[in-house]
Each structure stands twice: as structure tokens, then as C-alpha cells.
Amino acid sequence: YDYEDVIRMSIWFYEAQRSGELPADNRIPFRGNSALDDEGHEEEDLSGGWYDAGDYVKFNLPMASATTLLLWGMERYKDSYVATGQLDKMYDSIRWPLDYFLKCWIPEKNYYYYQVGDPVADHAYWGRAEDMNMDRPAFKLTTSSPGSDVAGETAASLAAGSIVFKTEDSAYSEELLTAARGLYTFAKTYQGKYPLYNFYVSSGYRDELCLAAIWLYKATGESSYLNDAKSFVSAGVPWALSWDSKDAACQLLLFEETRDSIYQTNVENFMDGWVSGSSVPYTTCGLAFRDGWGSLRYSANAAFLGLLAAEDGIKSTVYREWAIGQVNYMLGDNKLDKSYVIGYSNNFPTNPHHASSSCPSPPATCDWSTYNSQQPNAFVLYGALVGGPDINDNYVDDRKKYEYTEVTCDYNAGFQSAVAGEI
Length: 423
What we know:
The active site is at 397, 406. There is one protein chain. By secondary structure, the protein is mainly α. The protein has one domain (3-25, 35-422): Glycosyltransferase, CATH 1.50.10.10. Helix content is 49%, strand content 3%. The chain contains 17 helices and 4 strands. It has helices at residues 3-16, 60-76, 78-83, 87-104, 119-122, 148-164, 170-189, 206-220, 223-232, 247-258, 261-276, 295-311, 316-331, 355-358, 368-372, 402-405, 409-422; strands spanning 58-59, 105-106, 111-116, 138-141. Strands 1, 2, 3 and 4 form a 4-stranded antiparallel β-sheet that branches. The protein is globular, with a radius of gyration of 20 Å. The relative contact order is 0.14. The model has no long low-confidence stretch (mean pLDDT 98).
């Protein structure tokens, strides 16, 4: 499989998700400037960031989770981005959410904007991002309405960003680190789950506080952050590594920084449940199948973690071979000989649940009749990893079947980093 091509395409996908004013070198033919008026309650500029999926809400929890996973992959597998000629593109790509997070954090007021867009109104619209005219309210955390999960995850991404940009842009790296410190202090001081009840509901926040603390320790070497990470980590076996659950990542990062065998044991307990099938069932063709909605992203995240653990000397051969097998399934090693990465190979999904790419070029109309048609999307959404197959290895290429065909920033992140780890 051509992993270099997959990396290149995945970066394109994130460019297709951009909100705000696009650069002059925008490579996505169906995308232009959009949501330029996104603003906070006191008219703070909140333009930028990534649209979450096939819709146009900016949900900071999954956006930050994706950003952290991508940055972790950049930190560990920088050589892969150099080898593929994609390092500069990746720096540009990952600045997009980081710049947005800097806008969302208002340190002098202890405000953090964690969402822009009303999901109900947004999901009643099928059309181009550039044509939106519905209200796009902003939602914020305060000292009396905290959200240690989304603030903690964002602090983790900013701290990881400060490491990745240290040699590329030292001033930007310092700006990211200052924001990470402040946002982590806010998240730790005012603890609670963020107030979102219908979309991306958080199960807890100690894992995000752990993740923020360990990345801040990696960025600063200050022992107080390491002690915080140790206090926040959970010893249980997580259900998955996902936008909601970061404990598996924390365990591995703590092992890397301490070499304490207790963290190695916890990493092994998590990975062995995936590799052996004892906690995660398998499809006939060999996909570790955690859940029916977006099945591939969970396996991709576990594959990324397995590659990292293997590099760290934990069951190196077993975990690396398993991870490669999972990624190769996604690229076509399955009974359908189907690539689940749009645009890769000659058999890939053509009807992703993604409004922008479904719309024909203006002045043609784009609305719910477009959504309901069986016609392939008007534009190829290169690089997007779709949700994936069901437990029987079957796939329904119908944009109305979002469990199969949805694409999100979250789905591609661990996947792209895993592919980088295989080059």
C-alpha cells in the first residue's frame, strides 16, 4: 500500500474542513471563505478552525482531540513527513486549529469558547458552507460554568503544538505554551464536565487533565505537571482511545516519561484486549470492531497507540504487525477489496455524508434533494476516512447511512498518525 499517498490525501481532507478565510493557495476546488462572522459574546473573532464532519458546527472537544493525535504523530514520526515531502504542508495544516484555539481562550477573563454553531439549526441545513445564513451562536466556559474536559484537551493540543513548532517557529511555540499553561490552570482550578448534552457528550474530565499535564511536562520538564498527570490517570482498562477517552494515551505517555512498569502493564492490558479479541470482537476479515458507528476510527486509534508502544519496546513485533494489519484493512485488505479512504485506489466510497463535497458548483442548487439523491458526491473528498463497515464486513455507500459514510476530523487523526508510523 502506498502510505505516502494516504498521508498526502489525509492532509487534503483537513484542508477541506477549514472554516474561515482560506489562504491564497487553497487546494480544495469546492471550498471558499465561510463563517467569517463567527464571534464570541463580546465580538471576539472566532473565525477559523475545522468544521466537525459533514456539517458546519465547530465542536472543540473532538477538534482538539484530533489535533493532539495529529501532533503526537508529527512529534514521533517527523521523519515520515519529511520523507513524503509533506512536512511543510502538515505544519500549515495543524496551525489551522491551533490558531483557532488561541482565539477561543480569553485568559484575562477566564473564558474559553468551546463551540460555534447550533447543531439543531446546522443539521437542518444541507448546502455549501459558503452559503450558510443561519445564526451561529458561540458557547463558552467560565469559572462558574467549567469544562475541564474540553479545556484540558485543548491545553494538551497547545502544549503538543509548542513542542512540534519549537524548532520551526520558536515565537509561535512560546505563544502556544503560554496559552496551554493558562488553559490547563483554568481547567484544573474550575473542574467539571462541559455543558453539552446531545452531541459529543463527555463521560469525564480526569483523562483530559492527565493528558494536558503530561504534555505540559513534556514541553517544560516541570515536575509539578508530571505529578498532576500521575494523580489524574485512571488505572482501569479503557473502552477505547477516542475523542472522549484519553486514559490509554496517558498511560503510554506516563510510561515513556517514567519507565514505571505499572504504566507498561496498563498499556499492555489495553492493547492485549484489542489484539487478542478478548475485549474487542473481530469481523471475519480481521477488523477489530469496537462499535458500529464509525468503526474504523477506534481501530485506527488503537493501531496508532500500538505502533507507539511497539517503538517503546512493549511487545514490539506483536503490536506493530497487528497495527499494520488494521490499517491495511482500511486501505483494501478486506473482502470487498475496498479502500475506506476516499480517492485512494480504484474502489472507494463515493457518497460520503459530507455536505460541501456533495454540492455541485454554483450556481447549481444544493439542498436536501442533493442529500437524498443516489448520485455520487459532486467532488471527490480526497483523503477522508469514512466511518467504515459493519460487523459483517459489509459497507453501505449511502450518505443517509451516516454510521457507514460519515467523515470527521476525529476519524482521520489517529489514522493519519498510524500511517505515518508505518512509513
